[in-house]
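Checklist before submission:
- one chain only
- standard amino acids only
- sequence pasted in full

Submission:
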Amino acid sequence: MRVLYFGTYERDYPRNAQVISCLRRAGVEVEERHVAVWEGRRDNWSAGAGAAARLGLAELELLRRAPGDFDAVLVGYPGHFDLPAARHSARGRPVIFNPLVSLADTFVSDRGRFRTGSVAARTLAAVDRHALRAADLVVADTRTGADHLAELAGLARERVEVAYVGAEERVFGPGWSPAEPFTVLFVGKLIPLHGVGTVLGAARAAPELRFRLVGSGQLDSLVRERPSNVGWIPWVEYQRLPEELHRAGCALGIFGTSEKAKRVIPNKAFQALACETPLVTADTPGARELLVDGESALLVPPGDARALAEALQRIAADPELAQRLSAGGRAAYEAHASEDVLGRRWRELIEQAVARA
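Returned file contents:
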């Protein structure tokens, strides 16, 4: 089987790199047809005339390239504007969309960049619907996310399938060996989804614990007013993230209270599980699809800084609990989100789409 991974997707973003890696591991030949638009920018979806011009030129370039020999086209993330070019290149072969997010959900409901009901919000929702409906198959990252995308676009539920995000195993693997003192690790963009305010509130409620924050973004100003037990660095190279995870006492997932936060399991959660690092994250429908509280992670109410502080204090004071979470988290990863498991899942979904076409 041969698949064309297509579009203006961000090549190094974990969801894209991991899907390509999984497919190749499952014996699928993957050819990339990629035009760079978002690479080298921390805020990849930044608006503006420059971004619009780059995107327009990229779509023209995608349209100009002659199609090759392949069984299906897989549009990567971000790729909401790539579907017309993908359908043109597919020439009747199935088009599969790996959207990861809804634009309206991200920029209106979660990040609050545009007011609900505004022209911008309605435009983003229209872009979502058009892109999702243009695909023969949409692949979401959780079942709750799949339900949301199907409802958003008015699609039959069988047109939206699920494959977890997972982790790139060429980078992330076992090796958890926590250093002293016990350190709580947060990695990620400083955006509302991640619940940065909740993490800082937990740090204030547990001043005896050491926190390490790695990341930057929309909520930098909150971290600049952090308590003294919180260290902060704006970023760490992707290849060095396993080092951070292996020596952390535990890793943090997300704690936001938006509807989007209820549906997702972020990259960093899978990366922590792959590295055997005990995970603490919000108790949400999305998280419950993969994780069991007290077995594979500690789950706390979203937005509850006190509950998060108490969970972190439990792990710091109980090495046996930390070891159980480490082993249980890795077991959940191997059973449901390893590259072998996800490679078979992606291959199965593509084969089904080809058979239907």
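Reviewer check: The chain has a mean pLDDT of 93.
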